[in-house]
Design a protein that fits this description.
Blueprint (H helix, E strand, L loop, with lengths): L3 H10 L13 E5 L2 E4 L4 E4 L2 H4 L8 H13 L10 H14 L3 E5 L2 H20 L7 E3 L10 H6 L14 E2 L13 H11 L3 E6 L15 H11 L3 E5 L23 E4 L11 E5 L1 H4 L15 H16 L2 H18 L5 E7 L2 E6 L10 H10 L2 E2 L1 E3 L4 E3 L8 H19 L1
Parallel strand pairs: 3-13, 5-6, 5-7, 7-8, 8-9
Antiparallel strand pairs: 1-2, 2-3, 4-10, 9-10, 11-12, 12-15, 14-15
Helix pairs in contact: 3-10, 4-10, 7-8, 11-13, 12-13
The protein binds 4'-deoxy-4'-aminopyridoxal-5'-phosphate (PMP).
């Protein structure tokens, strides 16, 4: 369905580097769970732009809040008090129960900031010698793509090294903390707890392909952290804000993390905004000049976030995610696809595991992604092509959800046959 209109844009796009290997589709419009390209072709969104569109695309209340702020007060916020940042802090207290927040722009900023807070806490409160505080993570995690957050993540590409020391899934005495394996965390903490300030973990691993930890893992990990006076940091950049059927996915395990990282959907998908949330016992060690960024907590982003949090509560986004996540899985299972061996995740954070017996150079995640897009459905490939992310906005209309599942199932059958 492409004409010279798309080709001209793609020619210009040649100069844009990086990103997540986008499909050659020039999108120009998005409403709730429907997308349109420059040609007017329609797509059903089963991707949510990597868990950004939790409140649907272009929610009118969120767009209005952002546009008003852009018209009235579009400056960066660094030197004055921004009233909607103050309002956002109160909303976070009301909804999530945390005393304070510090806002940044990207998810990577928030995990980097949480690392700084934890290290300072380790030095000031726990008494770890200066320059020694470690932030432990888990294998296959993803906390961002900058040098410091690549270092937190488990498999940085050597080409970008050297990496930041004292962060990552290997403890100072060499214990590899495997995601989901409580014994490895126990061993690492037993050996190195004196210089470990924090354990940072994704409640469900998102970028690794939507990987669920075993039942009870998060609570056990939290209890171990408490036993060894180690902060428990939940990276809820992908799992938080209703995506999994909970306001925070940690809550499902009865865990209230010391620090929570939020991003992606925080400003309703209309502006970059991330945050670290925590209570006074930890957050009060932050002093002026410790943390900040010129555009962090700028009025359009914080105004959008206040509106997004209102929508989160008023429109029962977490409940919608739970209910429609259940329906999504029922519809997918009813298709009886032998090529799919199961589904992971929770709520509207879902991945189809491709049956290894069927995965071939012809049948795999990237090819399925392309075929689905051709037929008007946006999904994404994950886990080296062995899984397909199916993550619609929780606000998706039920008939669109059913239509998307039908397209997905037909693409699986056609690609494999
Ligand atoms: N943490 C998690 C759990 C994520 O999934 C991501 C992004 N996929 C990030 C951090 C980084 O967020 P950003 O891309 O906004 O920097």
């Amino acid at each position: 369905h492409f004409t010279d209109k798309t080709r001209a844009i793609l020619d210009e796009y040649e100069r844009c580097k990086g990103g997540f290997q986008p499909l050659p589709i020039a999108l120009t419009k998005a409403r709730n769970a429907t997308l349109w390209d420059v040609e007017g072709n329609r797509y059903i969104d089963f991707l949510s732009f990597f868990a950004v569109a939790n409140m649907g695309h272009a929610h009118p209340k969120i767009v209005e809040a952002a546009c008003t702020a852009i018209r009235e007060c579009p400056m960066a916020n660094t030197a004055f008090v921004n009233p909607s940042y103050a309002r956002l802090a109160s909303k976070i207290k009301e909804i999530f129960g945390y005393d304070s927040i510090v806002c940044m722009c990207t998810g990577a900023d928030s995990t980097d900031t949480a690392t700084k807070i934890a290290r300072k806490w380790g030095y000031k409160i726990k008494g770890i010698p200066s320059g020694k505080a470690v932030v432990l993570t888990a294998s296959a995690c993803y906390h961002g793509i900058t040098i410091s957050t690549h270092s937190l993540s488990s498999a940085p590409e050597d080409v970008f090294g050297p990496y930041v020391p004292g962060v990552g899934p290997v403890s100072p005495s060499g214990v590899l903390v495997e995601y989901g394996d409580i014994e490895s965390l126990k061993k690492a903490l037993e050996k190195d707890h004196e210089i470990i300030a924090a354990f940072m973990v994704e409640p469900i691993q998102g970028s690794a392909g939507i990987v669920d930890p075993p039942e009870g893992y998060l609570k056990q990990a939290y209890d171990l952290c408490k036993q060894y006076n180690v902060l428990f940091i939940a990276d809820e950049v992908q799992t938080g804000l209703g995506r999994t059927g909970e306001l925070l996915h940690s809550w499902r395990s009865g865990v209230k993390p010391d620090l929570v990282c939020l991003g992606k959907a925080l400003a309703g998908g209309v502006a970059p905004l991330s945050a670290v949330c925590g209570n006074a016992d930890v957050m009060d060690i932050i002093e002026g000049g410790d943390i900040g960024s010129t555009m962090a907590a700028n009025p359009p982003a914080t105004a959008a976030a206040v509106a997004a949090l209102e929508v989160l509560v008023d429109e029962r986004i977490a409940e919608q995610s739970k209910e429609k996540g259940k329906l999504l899985r029922e519809l997918l299972k009813a298709e009886n696809l032998a090529q799919v061996s199961g589904f992971t995740g929770a709520g509207m954070l879902c991945a189809a595991i491709l049956n290894p017996e069927y995965v071939t150079p012809r049948f795999n995640g990237p090819r399925l992604r392309r075929l689905c897009a051709k037929r008007g459905l946006m999904v994404n490939s994950a886990s080296g092509g062995n899984r397909v992310r199916i993550c619609p906005p929780p606000t998706i209309e039920e008939d669109l959800l059913a239509e998307g599942v039908k397209i997905f199932a037909q693409c699986v059958r056609d690609l494999e046959s």
